[in-house]
Design brief:
This protein is α/β, with parallel strands linked by helices. The protein is 40% helix and 18% strand.
Length: 345
């Protein structure tokens, strides 16, 4: 998606709130208004793609598809990310045209996407597939071309995957907290069961048991699907009392933002009252007053490596199926208190 809520609202002469209700499939507007908004978005996206499409008359195209299923973030498009320019150059140097597409289940139809891939003579696809379910991959198999996925695993379907090593990242995070003297750790999660999140939750339970911190299966608390929901749920959680919890593992950027907002509002001191360890990228400016310690996955290099492998697979159909995991790294902030070293009085 390359247009913002405000731009859609201005074009159609309606409020941004009405547009938000439509794209998030929520009640409060008529079906006629909803269809008008979604039809406008589909038309705008198609026009944008046609303007970008500049066939070089070479060996077909390589497509990079951002697959959205559970939510939509209208103002966060990967289109202008610096790595895309590098990927585009790499693809064109390999003799292919580059196509970047966003597919949203709530707006677009999969049949239209498959037809567009055929019309554009797409020879291979890299799908950013974090939100996809097992069944979602099958329409793409009808194309009978090489497919590589990021942030999801379809190994049994014969598809290459380039993934963040979620289990290694959670192990790194739990070890870090336990070594700092924390044992009553709670994992704060979104409500969505996507591949990365499921792996992180399973790893949390396993690693807590390994470090003899008890059964952590009842220490996973689901807060919501967006920052506002997480914020409201966290406020309720605080009202219940944190019950001896000394540290939280934050599943995603959405969780980090909502939880951080609620903690700051209630004047809970970080890390004196509770420590925070985030997972995934988060701009520091988003949490004023919190220098968050992060377990960070690799994104840009992984996308480029996936595209390079895809082109090798296009050239050689006997290229071996790969499952590639990228290790995380720890970015140490000041949001974790070292209980093993200091005792507050």
């Amino acid at each position: 998606m390359r247009i913002k809520l405000k731009e859609i609202a201005e074009e159609l002469g309606i409020s941004p709130a009405t547009v938000s209700l439509a794209v998030n499939d929520r009640p409060g507007i008529s079906e006629k208004t909803k269809e008008k908004i979604l039809a406008y978005i589909r038309s705008k996206e198609k026009k944008d793609r046609e303007q970008e499409w500049n066939p070089a008359g070479s060996g077909g195209a390589v497509a990079m598809i951002n697959y959205l299923k559970n939510g939509i973030i209208l103002n966060r498009s990967g289109k202008n990310h610096p790595v895309l320019e590098q990927i585009k150059k790499e693809v064109r140097a390999g003799g292919y045209d580059f196509v970047y597409l966003t597919f949203n289940e709530k707006i677009n139809r999969i049949q239209d996407l498959i037809r567009e891939c055929r019309n554009r003579d797409v020879k291979g696809i890299y799908i950013m597939a974090a939100e996809m379910s097992k069944a979602d991959i099958y329409p793409f198999l009808e194309l009978k071309i090489p497919i590589v996925t990021g942030d999801n695993l379809f190994y049994e379907e014969g598809i290459d995957s380039f993934l963040i090593d979620n289990r290694e990242g959670i192990r790194r995070g739990v070890d870090y907290l336990v070594d700092k003297g924390h044992s009553h750790i709670v994992y704060l999660a979104e409500n969505i069961d996507i591949f990365n999140f499921i792996e992180r939750r399973e790893a949390f339970v396993l690693e807590m048991a390994k470090r003899q911190c008890g059964d952590a299966s009842n220490r996973i608390r689901h807060l919501g699907n967006n920052v506002d929901e997480v914020y409201e749920s966290m406020r309720s959680y605080i009202d219940e009392g944190l019950k001896g919890t000394t540290a939280f593992v934050l599943e995603s950027s959405v969780i980090s933002l909502g939880v951080g907002k609620a903690l700051l509002e209630r004047q809970i001191r970080i890390p004196r009252d509770v420590s925070l360890l985030g997972f995934d990228a988060l701009p520091p400016v988003s949490l004023p007053g919190i220098d968050l310690t992060l377990v960070k996955g690799t994104h840009s290099k992984r996308h480029l490596a996936a595209i390079q492998h895809l082109m090798r697979h296009i050239r050689d159909e006997n290229e071996e199926i790969m499952r590639v995991y990228y290790k995380t790294r720890m970015i140490e902030g000041s949001s974790v208190f070292d209980k093993a070293k200091y005792i507050y009085r």
